[in-house]
Design goal:
The structure is a single chain. With about 300 residues, the protein is an alpha/beta fold. Strand 6, helix 4 and strand 7 form a beta-alpha-beta unit. About 40% of the residues lie in helices and about 20% in strands. Helix 4 packs parallel to helix 6 and helix 9 packs parallel to helix 10. It is globular, with a radius of gyration of 18 Å. The protein contains eleven helices and 16 strands. About 50% of the residues are buried. It has one domain: Alpha-Beta Barrel (TIM Barrel).
């Protein structure tokens, strides 16, 4: 692993898991997403991992027109690296999920390195009343859905987005096997180092949020990729802050955001993404590390630059 005292702090403001009824602070309109992202960057987020939502009801959207409502505003207001999700939602086709990336050709896209059960149905138990008709069946239906990326899909994303536009990837690895899938594509030279590997812990269907699992993932990535990669990690839900801290202590980077957890502490809803950024930033700096600037992150990740995107 390429270790550094400069920590790339990613913020994922909205995602496609949580729904409007779960928190009044979840950004769902374009204005809210733009404000949340800009505020997170001002609080110290180096990278902004972005999903779009339907303006009318806050449901996940893959449409370029919904990304277009907030992407230029964020870029005009901050120099943070913008990362567009190609994961979208398990209810979307691959072509749907690639629409935003192809339209806007960002510096970074997320790339799920394999299929998995992605069950977030338990999140619905905390909702007293649903605001929109789509929410309850969407959340409870996650028990029976697969977040799908097979090797053919992964190759398409690498070719149609990475090679086509010079976009680099945040390789989201939900289990150890996903690292070996990445190694397969590295051997085929479909992607080039440095690799930015995002370990995802605590999703029902993926690897558990236990410190030994993070150590195992790092050790496996070290064997497969040597010094050609940087590691980041986040855990869904209550383990968000301690796993971000643990990743940094292991020489890596970290991610926060309301996509991953709606809370700032035990039983306390986060009032903003920026609050989560500030909390983890404080821990990181107390430990003697520094938050990487966007310019430093671009150099570390080998990005093409914010002047070569399509928005």
């Amino acid at each position: 692993m390429r270790r550094s005292k400069k920590v790339i702090l990613t913020c994922a403001p909205t995602g496609s898991i949580h729904t409007p009824s779960m928190s009044p602070h979840l950004p769902v309109t374009a204005d809210q997403i733009a404000h949340a992202a800009i505020e997170a960057a001002e609080a110290g987020a180096t990278v902004l991992h972005l999903h779009a939502r339907n303006e009318a009801d806050g449901s996940p959207s893959p449409r370029a027109e919904d990304f277009a409502r907030f992407l230029p505003r964020i870029r005009q207001a901050t120099d943070a690296v913008i990362n567009i999700s190609t994961g979208g939602s398990a209810t979307m086709s691959l072509d749907d999920r690639l629409e935003g990336a192809k339209a806007f050709q960002p510096e970074v896209c997320s790339l799920n390195m394999g299929p998995l059960i992605f069950d977030f149905s338990a999140a619905g138990a905390r909702v007293d009343a649903w605001q929109h008709g789509w929410e309850q069946p969407y959340v409870e239906g996650s028990r029976g859905r697969i977040m799908y990326n097979d090797n053919a899909y992964i190759e398409r994303i690498m070719v149609e987005v990475g090679q086509a536009f010079g976009t680099k990837f945040e390789f989201e690895c939900y289990d150890i096997g996903h690292l070996y899938t990445l190694a397969h594509f590295v051997d085929r030279k479909l992607v080039e180092p440095p690799f930015f590997i995002q370990g995802v812990f605590g999703i029902l269907g993926g690897i558990g949020a236990e410190p030994a699992n993070l150590a195992h993932m790092v050790a496996t990535a070290d064997r497969l990729f040597g010094e050609d990669y940087m590691f980041s990690a986040f855990a869904a839900g209550r383990n968000q802050m301690n796993f971000g801290t643990l990743s940094v202590l292991n020489g890596g980077h970290a991610r926060v955001g309301l996509e991953d957890s709606l809370y700032i502490g035990r039983g306390e809803l986060a009032r903003s993404n920026a609050d989560q950024v500030r909390k983890l930033r404080g821990v990181i700096e107390t430990l003697g590390y520094e938050i990487a600037t966007p310019a430093e992150a671009r150099a570390m990740l080998g990005l093409k630059g914010g002047d070569r995107v399509g928005f």
